[in-house]
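Slide 14.
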Amino acid sequence: MAVPRKKVTRSKRNMRRAHDSLTAPNLVECDNCNEPKLPHHICGECGYYAGRLVVAPKVDEYDDEDDAA
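Slide 15: predicted structure.
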């Protein structure tokens, strides 16, 4: 079984972990609805990509029930 020969110091341990931090996603505005979205992805709100409709937008079932009441 592998056993380390020497104790790894806090400094060396932390240097190794220097690149493990998380970064926030880079968001851009949708050209159609101005909602934040990931670059090079279809907008989740309106379904547009590069100025054309690619996916029909989702319709919430709860919104229809509120209008009927």
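Speaker note: The mean pLDDT is 88.
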